[in-house]
Amino acid sequence: MLITFEGIDGAGKSTQVKKLKKYLTENNHDVLVLREPGGTIVAEKIRDLLLENKHDITPIGELLLFSASRAELVQHTILPALEKRTVVILDRFYDSTTAYQGYGRGLDLDVLQSINAIASSGLVPDITFYLDISPEDALIRKFSEKSIPLAFEENELDRMENSGLGFYQRVRDGYMKLAEHNDRFVLLNACDDPQVLHHKIVKHIVSLFSANRTSTEI
């Protein structure tokens, strides 16, 4: 099973990923947690390049770097894990590319869809949890977590964080459109109490496991 978490930076994905991993592990599931970009030696190097704020990368270059990282992760890590019936929890997948590079940067969505399909080897998540938060609230949350004062310097943020509130609003709008048109999306309010969010996520996961079990028996 492939479970993905999506949302703009500061939505609280990492917290919910950790909680879900703990729950599934305690219930005797083999679990592998991964992040995008990253997860392999090559992909982690690409991650460093993408997030360094001293590099100016074009939207097309950004897209191709993210996709290269994803292709490495899917082929070398995700697919082998799924073949062993490991539950894979992924912090971001190709929906991030659609939201960030498509809606955020303005790249052609049809082109993105083709590149996403190639980079992911046609893999589709079983369920995607989208944690929705306004860019303003997300920014305040990230500053609080990093202990960055509101009178911050740009070099204290990574390259993606430096893209501005307008960019993140477009990304959020893109995510909402994806959630509206994809049944696998579960829309959650990222401002809810973390434990409340966790219980909602677990409820969906239990239901999904039950449905898969019934389907297999049939």
Topology:
Layout: E1 2-6, H1 13-26, E2 31-35, H2 41-51, H3 59-83, E3 87-91, H4 94-104, H5 109-119, E4 127-132, H6 135-146, H7 165-181, E5 185-189, H8 194-217
Parallel strand pairs: 1-3, 1-4, 2-3, 4-5
Structural class by secondary-structure content: alpha/beta
What fold name stands as the CATH topology?
Answer: Rossmann fold
Strand content: 5-15%
Note the overall shape. Answer: globular
Instruction: Tally the structural domains.
Output: 1
Provide tags for this entry.
218 residues; alpha/beta; Rossmann fold; 8 helices; 57% helix; globular
Walk me through the structure.
There is one protein chain. With 218 residues, this protein is of the alpha/beta class. It is built from eight helices and five strands. The protein has one domain: P-loop containing nucleotide triphosphate hydrolases (Rossmann fold, 3-Layer(aba) Sandwich), CATH 3.40.50. The chain is 57% helix and 12% strand. A five-stranded parallel sheet has the order 2-3-1-4-5, sandwiched between helices. It is globular and about 45 Å long.
Characterize this entry briefly.
The chain is of the alpha/beta class. It has helices at 13-26, 41-51, 59-83, 94-104, 109-119, 135-146, 165-181, 194-217, and strands at 2-6, 31-35, 87-91, 127-132, 185-189.
